[in-house]
Every structure is written in structure tokens, then in C-alpha cells.
Design brief:
The structure holds two protein chains of two kinds. Chain A is an all-beta fold. Chain A is built from no helices and eleven strands. Chain A has strands spanning about 5, 10-15, 20-25, 30-40, 45-50, 55-60, 60-65, 70-75, 85-90, 100-105, 105-110. In chain A, the strands form two sheets. In chain A, strands 2, 4, 5, 9, 10 and 11 form a six-stranded mixed sheet that branches. By secondary structure, chain B is mainly β. Chain B contains no helices and eleven strands. Chain B has strands at about 5, 10-15, 20-25, 30-35, 45-50, 55, 65-70, 75-80, 85-95, 100, 105-110. In chain B, strand 4 and strand 5 form a beta hairpin. The mean pLDDT of chain B is about 95.
Chain lengths: ~110, ~110
């Protein structure tokens, strides 16, 4: 089955700096890679996603990159703000099968003033 | 209108008890899931149902029994609760790649 690794497990940045979270996946059949943000006591919420036919996608201050050959994908947050503080999860899915969304182990991002 | 709703939000119970968590989605999705999030925040799939049929059953103790009376509902019954069952349980539904999560049920076994 799919295995998703995520690094780092914790990340502390100063407000205004950039944050990068990296993930690797094992199943080359995975073709959909979403990122979720989970605030304390809340549900995971989708913030951005990328499909395997795209190398990069951007939405305001967040961007994702995908390297299919290396099976790497990354989340980039620029100009971080205190409200970006949360746990971020990457995930991988093969949309062509009745498979499950497999999550990475999460990154706790702390944006300090 | 809440898209995926779970009840109860909090559940505190003693070891050995049997409890159920209910989930309902009004999105018309065909597939529903139960995920467990432990104290380290790891999110792990437990079960998946597609149109009331069980399609994924991860290595979960058979004290956990999901039931899907129709494609809009997926309930989770847990027998003989153990301390290690304490976690947040998230229900989710999907259509294709679009997943929507419920707000979670925090289960505490004492």
C-alpha cells in the first residue's frame, strides 16, 4: 500500500518568513496530492491540491510542487502570518482505484511574532 | 447545513463499555470513511464504505464494527472499550478525490 513520509514534524518560523514542508510517497500509481490544515480542535481542511499531470500550483501565499520522478511533493507558504499556525498534513491518493487517502505524519507549524 | 455531521462531539466512558458514534453526510457522496487520529496527531484510515459495501478494512481490532444502513450514514460501534481507544475519530465522505471531513468525536476511555 501507499506510504507517505512528511518532514519536518515541527517547524517554527518568524512572521513574514517562508515555510516549506516536504513529503515523499511510495506508490507510483498515486496521482492526487492534497494538503490539509488542521487547527487545534478542528477538522482537517483542504487548502490546496495538485494532480500528477501538473508540476506546480499556486494560490496566493501557498504553493505546491510535485516531482513525480522522485516521488516528492512540497508545500510552500510565503509571508507567514500567526493564523498560519496549525498542523499541516500532506496526503496521496490513487483516484483510479477504490483506494484510500493516505496521510503523512503531520507538521506542526508555529509562526512567531 | 453541515455537510458531514458526527455525533457525539465528545464521549467519555469507562473501560469495558460499548459505545457508538454516528455519522451522516448530505453531500450525495458514494463513499464514506472512518479515520482515527491519535495523541500524536497521526491520521489513519480504519474503514471505507462505498454504497453501503465495505471496501477497506485496515488492521483494526474486531471490537470495532462499522455499519452503513444507507450511503448517507456510516456508524461506528466499539465493544469492550480499552484505554488505547482514546483518540479523535473523524468521519469523512468523498466523491472522486474530493474529501470532506466531519468535525470529529473525541473519545476518552477512563
Amino acid at each position: 500500500g501507499e506510504n507517505v513520509e512528511q518532514h519536518p514534524s515541527t517547524l517554527s518560523v518568524q512572521e513574514g518568513d517562508s515555510a516549506v514542508i516536504k513529503c515523499t510517497y511510495s506508490d507510483s500509481a498515486s496521482n492526487y496530492f492534497p494538503w490539509y490544515k488542521q487547527e487545534l480542535g478542528k477538522r482537517p481542511q483542504l487548502i490546496i491540491d495538485i494532480r500528477s499531470n501538473v508540476g506546480e500550483k499556486k494560490d496566493q501565499r501557498i504553493a505546491v510542487t510535485l516531482n513525480k520522478t522522485a516521488k516528492h511533493f512540497s508545500l510552500h507558504i510565503t509571508e507567514t502570518q500567526p493564523e498560519d499556525s496549525a498542523v499541516y498534513f500532506c496526503a496521496a491518493l490513487n483516484t483510479g482505484t477504490a483506494s484510500k487517502l493516505t496521510f503523512g505524519t503531520g507538521t506542526r507549524l508555529q509562526v512567531t511574532l | 447545513d453541515t455537510a458531514v455531521s458526527q455525533t457525539p462531539k465528545y464521549l467519555v466512558t469507562q473501560m469495558g463499555n460499548d459505545k457508538s458514534i454516528k455519522c451522516e453526510q448530505n453531500l450525495g457522496h458514494d463513499t464514506m470513511y472512518w479515520y482515527k487520529q491519535d495523541s500524536k496527531k497521526f491520521l489513519k484510515i480504519m474503514f471505507s464504505y462505498n454504497n453501503k459495501e465495505l471496501i477497506i478494512n485496515e488492521t483494526v481490532p474486531n471490537r470495532f464494527s462499522p455499519k452503513s444502513p444507507d450511503k448517507a450514514h456510516l456508524n461506528l460501534h466499539i465493544n469492550s472499550l480499552e484505554l488505547g481507544d482514546s483518540a479523535v475519530y473523524f468521519c469523512a465522505s468523498s466523491h472522486g478525490a474530493g474529501y470532506t471531513f466531519g468535525s470529529g468525536t473525541r473519545l476518552t476511555v477512563v
